[in-house]
Amino acid sequence: MEEYRRIADRVEAAVRDGRLRPGDRLPPQRVFARRHAIANSTAIRVYGELARRGVVVGEVGRGTFVRAAPPLPGPALAEATGLAPVDLQLNYPVAEGQSELMARALAALARPDVLAEAVSRPAAATGTPEARDAAVSVLARPGWAPDPASVLFAGNGRQAIAAALSTLVPPGGRLGVEALTYPLVKAVAERLGIRLVPLALDAEGVRPEALAAAHRAAPLSAVYLQPTLHNPLSSTAGEGRRAELAELLRTLDLTAVEDTTWAFLVPDPPVPLAAHAPERVVLVDSLSKRLAPGLTVGYLVVPGRLRAAVAEALRSGAWTAGGLALAAAVRWTGDGTVAEAVAAKRADTEARHALVRRRLAGQVVRTSPHAYYCWWELPAPWRADTFTAAAAARAGVAVTPGSAFAVGTGTAPDAIRVGLASPPRAVLDEALSRLAALVAAGPSGADGAGRPGGAAGAGGADRA
What we know:
Layout: H1 3-16, E1 25-26, H2 29-36, H3 40-53, E2 56-59, E3 63-66, E4 86-87, H4 98-109, H5 112-119, H6 129-139, E5 151-154, H7 157-168, E6 174-178, H8 183-192, E7 195-199, E8 201-202, E9 205-206, H9 208-217, E10 222-225, H10 239-252, E11 256-259, H11 273-276, E12 281-286, E13 298-301, H12 304-316, H13 323-334, H14 337-359, E14 364-366, E15 373-377, H15 384-395, E16 397-398, E17 400-401, E18 415-419, H16 425-441, E19 462-463
Parallel strand pairs: 4-16, 6-7, 6-10, 10-11, 11-12
Antiparallel strand pairs: 1-3, 2-3, 5-13, 8-9, 12-13, 14-15, 14-19, 15-18, 17-18
Helix pairs in contact: 1-3, 2-3, 4-13, 5-13, 6-13, 7-8, 7-12, 14-16, 15-16
């Protein structure tokens, strides 16, 4: 047997016996090669073999992740479907007519004089005065608007997060995060050598006493929070909770990275945590979800004491926005494209949640009518990893297991995140129907096995 297959067998065995769990991220291929004393080309073949077997999935810009336990004998994971596959892992909303809206600004940028100005030199982390004013209009909400001088620009929201964390947390430092958090933060922390500390959650997000206790146990360098439309739980903290967290940040001498990427979907959102403690919060956001990920910019609203350091992190990490993207963002903001796309996507979430309520009736689903995702707490005897694999094999639907969001060594929740944004509504409707039928059939495949029962769980769970 060739060497790369033997190594792939060992990785697959680690998944089977639980040493590697669904959602765990494999090291970069060059690191894997060094650890196993093999050539980089052999590591590439190992990862390719694991992907071919369905053990891992690679995501551009994020890395390679364990997808689920390898297929086992029996009906739960066998019986590969001939149905068209549906990806409910990726979650990029596209409004009807969005491309036509965006094309108007791009047509104007095609003029040689305008294009020359946009691409003739690299964009600075501070952008341009026009870009900062446009960013303020995008990020502002009733009762709060950032100071234009506080705005910096990244290539996208992920790069904005990476720049903020690399500034605030040294290698080996401790970062407090929600016990269920955005998987990218886990990947960024691994690359930067940051230790994640899970913080207990309730219906409004991180519990202040959990943050205080974690900092007392061993000082945190910073904390990462999603106070509005938390991903994956869709929870939103009220004004009281935000004020309490802001005061706690001052008391503990901590800085928070506040991720507001999905907050635009709430018609009348609370003011951000940054409004309560502007000197203690780095706010990050982007145009990716409002418009599209292919040509976007990331925003950072940074306290004055950190601005130079974050700008340097953006420069040194090659995370600054491109000039063409900045110019497009200015035009999309000024001509109403962003506002029109946001209004369309808010209406779209309502239509998609009507499908969730119909297809997942009786299931325990945590979500918000404004969110483009839902957190489905699976009924016994389903386990998240088994269901994720069965959904792909039997229903042709890719979903994300709870372990992808879980932080720490505790038991990952038997829940999945279902992304609602990417497929057309009719395709989403069919996919939700397939998943509901799979739950009803149960792991054994027998009709009626594993039907849900009982009341919705604590912490804001809603009946779909």
